[in-house]
Amino acid sequence: MKKSTIALIVAAIVCLGLSVFSVKASVTRTNTAIENIGEVTYTDECKAKIDRAVEYYNALDPNFDLKERINHMEDFDAAKIEYARLAIKAASVADARKTVEGYSSDDVKKYVEEAREVVDQYLTADQYALVENYADLAALENEYTSTGGTGGASEEVSIPMC
Amino acid sequence: MDALLSVNWIALLVLVIALLLFKALNWIAYKVNWTFVILISMVMGAVVGIVFASEGNSYMTWLALIGDVYVNLITALVAPVILVSVISGLIQLNDKEKMKRIGTKSVFWLMLSSAIAIVITVIFGGLTQIGRGAGAVFSDISSVAGSTLEAYQEMETSFDQILLKLFPTNIVGDLAADNIVAIIIIAVAVAVAYVSVSSEEGEDKVKTFKDLIEGMKKIIFYILSYVIDLTPYAVLCLTAISASQLLSDKEALVQVILLVAMIYVVCLVQTYGVNAIILKFAAKLSPVKFFKKTFDAQATAFTTQSSVGSLPITIDRLIRKVGVDEEVANFTAPLGTTIGMAGCTCIWPILLAMFYLNATGQHWEVSQYLIMCFMCLVLSMGSAGMPGIGVVTAVSLFSAVNLPIAAVVLLIPINSISDMVRTLTNVVGANVTAAVVARKTDLLDDSVFNAEEGRTNKKEGQAS
Q1: Which domain holds residue B418?
Q2: CA angle B279, B285, B291 (to 5 degrees)
Q3: Chain A partners of B51 at a C-beta cutoff of 8 Å?
Q4: ipTM score for this prediction
Q5: Is A63's CB within 8 Å of B55's CB?
């Protein structure tokens, strides 16, 4: 047998081994990332942990039904919903501060956009209803990000998914 | 760790397996007939595609790259091959009357082939009542977004546009855009001018031009031989991708599986039934032998889904294995990628329209069917032989006969899988027409056609 053929067979075996390893490891790292989320707070550190778990979860190979092998899926969903709730609440607080403490529209808009990003990135359309203050986000978007609203100068149109 | 997991190891595994299979094909290529090599590569590709079927073809990334490289390479050769070979062939013919006969006979037989395809399709569609009971397929027709519809409406082509596009506007632009009829018109104009100058002022005045064209032809066909050698490897990759795609799309296909089956049946009847009769009675050739000798051109068409992309191999096989004279092969086969194209411009849009009519319980008068058939014949006069042209023809036909374009949008999932057999029909139709025209103009070498194919020395795959 030629050396190049032997090299290809060895490469195939290595790839096969790494495929099996990466499939198992991708499940393990997702489980670990979910466990590491811990208590949900509206902080950059907590967001980074959820982001990582979401990234790993989305990267799971859809051809092996790996998502069914994720432990604590309920905790993971709850953490995402809770963070989305906190992000919307932060936007509502910023809106309230605008009236009381003179926040600019652009400041509030930043929070509203961040909340929308979190909602779209973390949740599926049928999970929106599970965020108790989701209606607040829709109302804030109507005020700050829709055309004709009282938002900032850029007037980006945000299309709610619901 | 993250870096290790970010690599798609299964896609790499598929690549390595494909490379091993390439080595096996390379070994086989010296042992058996070239046609058999192509057949083996298709089987190997289908097995790889079935074993590694994946959502979104995620395991086929590297094979798709190899397939795309091959399609790009062969498409890059289309314009120079046609330009140089048509000029060369017609210059050697040196007979304006014969040029005219080849041209008119080619158009006649291509259009006749389209007309037969239209009749067969309407008969099959009518007899089977294709689409009856499949109303659910179109239940979401109103939900097709307006922006999507607008995008599809832009594809629509009218009769005047079809005619206009046939003629050259910019020599360099038409060559770059692979506008086949325009390239042929340019080449014919050059050849006619050459023959005129040669006969009026003597051949010495233009001999340099003839030598230049002959030299260029030799070089281009030599390059082509390198690309043709890659065909089995590309066929393996492209078949694997199609098989994987088919399995991952199976849910979308289930609802319209009968339509897909009908498209395959009608296309295969046209390809191997109607064309066999034409070959037997008009070209006086053995159909089985003809299909065997042009098998690799058929395999390339089936897997690349590009009539134009298959041209270099088609022309080569017509000349070297069927015995069609160069001037006919170089003229008629390229013409068949624009005029005719029975699979994409006749069978596909008519079956879609009949499927929609039966599914929604509409009844058409005979006159409406006749208008639809006439529109298909018009469409078959000028469509580009590129992957995806079937969508354009379907949109154009639906628009012309006042059927909703949204129905075409809902049937798009089956476009790719049916494009394979449609392209096969187009290419075989063009090949058969070339053989018929060669026979009718006494430019068919029976000794080449009757020569038995032996074992390859691998170089059998090469263009001459």
Answers
A1: 2-461
A2: 70
A3: none
A4: 0.71
A5: yes
